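Students often ask why inverse folding is considered easier than folding. One informal answer: many sequences map to the same fold, so there is more than one right answer. In these notes we will look at a single instance of the problem. The structure comes first.
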C-alpha cells in the first residue's frame, strides 16, 4: 500500500472511532442524568452541573480526534 492510501485509512479510522465513542458516551451520560433527575428532582442542579461537565469532556475527545486526523492529513 502506498503511504497516501495508508494516510487516508488512518484518517478514516481515527474519525470513525473519534466520533462514535464520544457519541455513545454522550448518550449514556444524557440517559443516566435524566434518570437520576427523575428519581431525585431536588438534586437536579447538582446533577445538571456534573452532566454538563461530563458532556464537555466527552466532546473534547471528539475534537482531539478531529485535530489528530487533520494533523495526519496535512503533515
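Output (designed amino acids):
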Amino acid at each position: 500500500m502506498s503511504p497516501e492510501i495508508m494516510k487516508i485509512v488512518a484518517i478514516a479510522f481515527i474519525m470513525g472511532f473519534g466520533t462514535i465513542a464520544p457519541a455513545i458516551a454522550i448518550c449514556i451520560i444524557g440517559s443516566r442524568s435524566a434518570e437520576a433527575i427523575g428519581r431525585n428532582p431536588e438534586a437536579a442542579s447538582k446533577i445538571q452541573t456534573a452532566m454538563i461537565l461530563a458532556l464537555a469532556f466527552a466532546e473534547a475527545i471528539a475534537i482531539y480526534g478531529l485535530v489528530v486526523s487533520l494533523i495526519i492529513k496535512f503533515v
